[in-house]
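Issue: copy button drops trailing tokens. Both records pasted manually instead:
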Amino acid sequence: MIEILPESGGNILEVRAGEKLTDADYKDTFIPAMEGVIKQHGKVRLLFDCGENFRGWEPKAAWDDAKYGIKHRNDFEKIAVVGAGRWIEWATKLDAHFVGGEVKVFPKDQLDEAREWIKA
């Protein structure tokens, strides 16, 4: 499950992931939200909050994520990943080589700090 958080606005998109992300999560929620921000503002500042029960991606969703990231690599201004376990932190650092913009990982207790960073 992925949810668009009410703190989203302007060129900032905040999402919270829970359980395992699915192909439907990407096609029905995440990609349309990203496309809307990119269309309206040119670049997006993404805050990706790994919820308490986040367990990763189903294979099709992981593929959706990779394809979208590569296709839109120059459309990201900043990406903040919050609450990442060690494996997500590692994957985020790897992904940073394939997307434009700044990428930073924050511990789960630093959501407010991530919000401040994404806005700066």
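Record 2 (pasted manually too):
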Amino acid sequence: MNGSNLLVDTNILIYFLQNDLEIIEMIRDKNLTVSFVSELELLSLSDLTEEDESVIKGLLNNCTIWDLNDEIKQKTIQFRKNSKLRLPDAIIAATASYLQMPLLTADKGFRSIDVIDVIIYESQP
């Protein structure tokens, strides 16, 4: 994986929080960016303890969180029209496109998007 900037999907952050060693190695020394969608998804997980929330907030503090803007909105609309991505995933894909960053995800549904650089992580059983 070349470059030091990565947009990471929510599932990658979850694997990281679960101490997935391969993910830890993949994102080591990278400048991580996340969509606001991932921030919302992580902080709204059911059954979060105060400690879990604190750990998640600590992780997010080490990432750049990118909010919605008009160009991302327009790209999201196009991704939704041209693919079967769910709205949160379309926003994440649009953010990667807008920022011109590779997207690291474990969601194979992103393979249908050929206008962004998608790195699919396949976890080892």
